[in-house]
Amino acid sequence: MERVVDQIILAALCLLLLSSPGLSGAHVVALLAAVTLSCCFDVPSAPPVRLGVAGAYLAAALVLPAFASFLPLAAYVLAFERAWPVRLAWLVPLAAAVRLLEPLPLAALCALCVMACLMALRAQRAADERARYRRLRDDLQERSLSLSRKNHELAASQDYEVRLATLAERARIAREIHDNVGHLLTRSVLQVEALQVVHADDAPIRAELAQVGSTLHEAMDTVRRSVHDLHDDSFDLRSRLEEVIGACGLPNVRLSFDARTVPPPVAQCLMACVREALSNVARHSDATRVDVSVVEYPALYQLIVQDNGTAAGKGMAAGASEDAAAGKAFGARGLGLESMEERVEALGGRLRTEQQAGGGFRVFAAVPKEREGKA
Question: Taking the CB of the first residue and of the last residue of the chain, which one, N or C, has fewer CB atoms within 10 A?
Fold first, then answer.
């Protein structure tokens, strides 16, 4: 828009240089030709088209004073070209106008050409500054989004670390209660039962000792339930899966975990399935990559373990046969896969194992949420 305003101002100044009686049809044609030249440079067009129109206009300005009168418009649009010979091409018809125009109009025309070049320089700098501002704004926006994403990831990581620390502390408390309080209560129960035997002939003392023993048994049951509750709450499936993956000995195992809270029975089932599947890969497969995926859906928990073993290596499917040397047919289910299937079905889920058409073996398990408490 700024360039259009500049060209309108230059065209108006060029018309002011012409006296009203001096206006002719040639000037109208020259003005229309200058406007056409400006449009060719303002709208997207091929360089040969722009330069061809500019060359025709400058050639006409060499011999026709009417065309030379609008050279400032040509000087303005040519100033945006990269090549210096093209930028200064308007000087040739301006030099030829020395013999065509009077000294005063010629001086005014030269001043307008210089002013047109300065206006073009100002417009180009303004366009460069706007482009630079847009780049800075985009970079700032990109950095802001990147910083926001990193802050979110850092906050999520901190929350996860705090949760892991909390679960580890619960496991430690459960272990301390089991190792200390549980053993002390067990010893107390044994001592009371021993005293009951010693005082078997004294009925009042036996009755008192029986009450103490009953209290100790009740305390023992309460401690046992508390220890189990703390132990179940301290079970984090993601960290346990990472430990299993780290201990399996396979070089390239990728874990994808998208589950918020997995109940302990389901978590233990999924962990056992992953351990068995990775064990089969390590012992029987020529796979170079294993993908482990745990996803929580509104109605179920899903586990997928898939390798890229070749047909010769059979992938995890080799684990389906516990005695390949004995000549069992491929696909016979071994104890490992049967154990996995029993664990999943005990929670009301389904386990499916299959050889992929493109190579590799796949274990798929789905456990519904409504049955998760019946392990």
Answer: N
Q: Are 329 and 261 in contact (CB under 8 A)?
A: no
Q: What is the 3-state secondary structure (H, E, C) of 25-75?
A: HHHHHHHHHHHHHHHHHHCCCCHHHHHHHHHHHHHHHHHCHHHHCCHHHHH
Of 62, 128, 67, give the one whose Cα is nearest residue 89. 62
Q: What are phi and psi of 293, to 5 degrees?
A: -130, 125
| Residue 233: φ, ψ to 5° | -70, -25
Q: What are phi and psi of 289, to 5 degrees?
A: -150, 140
Instruction: Compute the distance between CA of residue 328 and CA of residue 235 in angstroms, rounded to an integer.
Output: 39
Q: Note whether 355 and 361 are within 8 A (CB).
A: yes
Structure tokens at 27: 């000037």
CB-based contacts of 287, cutoff 8 Å, min separation 6:
250, 281, 307, 308, 309, 313, 315, 360
Non-local (6+) Cβ contacts of 356 within 8 A are 306, 362
Radius of gyration of the chain (CA): 44
Give the whole-angstrom CA distance, residue 311 versus residue 277. Answer: 17
Q: Is 67 within 8 Å of 60 (Cβ atoms)?
A: yes
Block mean pLDDT (10 aa), the chain, length 375:
82 76 75 83 73 84 84 86 83 83 83 89 89 93 90 78 71 73 79 82 82 81 70 68 84 87 85 88 84 91 88 49 39 70 90 82 88 44
CA distance linking residue 232 with residue 2, whole number of Å: 71
What is the reported pTM? 0.43
Of the candidates 366, 145, 159, 175, which has an alpha carbon nearest to the alpha carbon of residue 273?
366
With vertex at residue 94, the alpha carbon angle to CA 90 and CA 97, rounded to the nearest 5 degrees, is 150
3-class DSSP state for residue 19?
coil
For the chain, the straight-line distance linking the first and the last C-alpha, in angstroms and rounded, comes to: 73
